[in-house]
Design a protein that fits this description.
The complex is a heterodimer of chains A (107) and B (336). Chain A has 107 residues and is of the alpha+beta class. Chain A has helices at 28-34, 68-74; strands at residues 3-9, 15-21, 53-58, 84-86, 99-103. Chain A starts with a strand and ends with a strand. The mean pLDDT of chain A is 91. Chain B is of the alpha/beta class and 336 residues long. In chain B, 22% of the residues lie in helices and 29% in strands. Chain B has helices at residues 13-24, 40-44, 62-73, 162-171, 191-202, 299-317, 328-331, and strands at residues 2-9, 29-33, 50-51, 60-61, 79-82, 86-92, 96-101, 106-114, 120-123, 154-158, 177-181, 207-209, 212-218, 225-230, 236-240, 243-246, 250-253, 264-265, 268-270, 283-285, 290-291. In chain B, a hairpin with a 2-residue loop joins β18 and β19. In chain B, α1 (13-24) packs parallel to α3 (62-73). The two termini of chain B are 21 Å apart. The chains are: A alpha+beta (107), B alpha/beta (336). The A-B interface holds A 38, 40, 42-44, 46, 48-51, 68, 71-73, 75-80, 107 and B 41, 45-46, 118-119, 124-127, 158-161, 183-184, 188, 213-214, 246, 248-252, 266-267, 288, 297.
Chain lengths: 107, 336
């Protein structure tokens, strides 16, 4: 399967189910930007700015393990949640079908 | 006072290349950057990372690219003001701008080019109600400049990164009472630092409050106490505190640029893609700090923007004089 369904909740609480390709090497951050969500991703995907942070509502167990770089960045957030991840560090793959994420509040 | 043709805010790769492009047109540049060295994000964050999409370089290390850009700019003798942040921008007369830094340096320029990349990195502030009323010398600081200022006083540090650990270790012997508040029950900082903090807690030199967040601050005119809430039990505990230092890393912000009446969209400056000019004549924005339809945040796109900006700036500074572009293969690089 090359396409998966991802449910995205924006900062206003609006929920949308999207179809995401998994064969283009996109990260979740790149996909969210392509879908015109308000994701700054100012560092371009290097896990340096945390402006692409999402809170994983469903499907956390399907995600790749957090790297030390991602953890170190997330650990600086004052409002980090246990289910927060950097979207730039999550490469879309078939196992992520059904993932539900919410855009993390921006400081 | 420094006087120049073009004041470039930001000494990253795009700002540095703008010196070269402006120099070819006999315009002088002065660069200002908040960081103490040139190179911007490349030198500060990833100097050893290879970059693969610079034309002519199959691969180049970020710092190597910066070093080469500095070398390329040298014939045009740019000026640099480093370690200072532009705070004020004032239009004077028909074509001149006066820029003022936080250190009081004044730069007069005919054209201003904003090449600020991600913007300024400012302390990330926790969402605690009323925190701002204790800022500016009333107890809440986001960085520690002079540790002696805190000698013999009561302090709460919040955060779990290396900065929080390092300052806790350093200040344990300086302050009279120190509480470190961390959201998690473990630290991912340097293992040696984590061990030292644990030893300080076990020996009773510091209060280590884990699984907890800042909840509220209070005081009459100045900070007097900090309330902390436990993540699981939701119990609150209050700590006497003369100072609270939240250390939650840095977040990119536009900073004072936001107050300059430029058209801004999603923390980026809107530009005309004909020449990367902004809505204010004489001010341009190039590189990652600008935005337009189909913008690509690539260094090579910033280089292109620098070239077009330079030609437009030349026309802005020399209205009525027609410039005929010459290739460097024909003219070479003629120093000032």
């Amino acid at each position: 399967m090359s396409d998966i369904n991802i449910v995205v909740e924006d900062r206003e609480g609006n929920t949308t189910e999207l179809v995401a390709p998994t064969d283009m090497g996109l990260s979740l951050m790149e996909f969210l930007k392509a879908c015109e969500y308000d994701v700054l991703a100012t560092c371009g995907g290097m896990a340096l700015c945390a402006t692409c942070c999402v809170d994983v509502m469903e499907g956390e167990e399907k995600l790749n393990e957090m790297s030390d770089d991602e953890y170190a960045m997330l650990d600086t957030l004052p409002d980090l949640l246990p289910n927060s991840r950097l979207a730039c560090q999550l490469q879309l793959s078939p196992v992520m079908n059904g993932l539900k994420v919410r855009l993390h509040a921006m400081d | 006072m420094i006087s120049t043709d073009i004041a470039i805010i930001g000494a990253g790769p795009v700002g540095l290349f703008a010196i070269f492009e402006a120099g070819l047109l006999k315009m002088r540049c002065h660069l200002i950057d908040y960081l103490p060295q040139v190179g911007g994000q490349l030198s500060e964050i990833y100097p050893k990372k290879p970059i693969y999409d610079i034309p002519g370089y199959p691969t180049v290390l970020a710092q190597e690219l910066i070093d080469n850009l500095v070398e390329q700019a040298k014939p045009f003798h740019p000026g640099y003001t480093l370690g200072e942040r532009i705070e004020g921008l004032e239009k004077r007369g028909e074509a001149d701008f006066v820029l003022t830094t936080n250190m009081g340096t004044i730069i007069e320029a005919k054209v201003v080019v904003i090449a600020g990349g991600l913007g300024c990195f400012e302390p990330r502030k926790p969402a605690v109600a009323g925190l701002e009323q204790f800022e500016n010398g009333r107890g809440v600081n986001y960085m520690i400049l002079d540790p002696e200022k805190y000698r013999g006083q009561k302090m709460v540090i919040a955060g779990g990164g290396d900065s929080a650990l390092d300052w806790t270790i350093f200040l344990a012997d300086v302050v009279s009472e120190l509480t470190l508040v961390h959201r998690s029950e473990s630290f991912r900082g340097a293992p040696d630092s984590v061990n030292k903090v644990m030893e300080l807690a076990e020996s009773g030199k510091i209060n280590l409050v884990l699984n907890s967040n800042l909840n509220s601050v209070s005081g009459e005119g100045k900070l007097e106490s900090v309330e902390v809430i436990h993540n699981r039990t939701m119990e609150t505990t209050s700590y006497e505190a003369d100072h609270l230092i939240p250390l939650f890393g840095l977040s990119p912000k536009l900073g004072p640029i936001e107050q300059w009446n430029l058209n801004i969209s999603k923390s980026a400056i809107e530009v005309n893609t004909d020449d990367y000019s902004t809505n204010i004549p004489g001010i341009y924005a190039i590189g990652d700090i600008n935005t337009y339809t189909n913008k690509l945040k690539l260094i090579l796109c910033g280089f292109h923007e620098a070239a077009l900006m330079s030609h437009s700036a030349y026309q802005y500074m020399n209205p009525g004089i027609k410039y005929t572009m010459k290739y460097t293969t024909v003219n070479g690089v003629t120093e000032f």
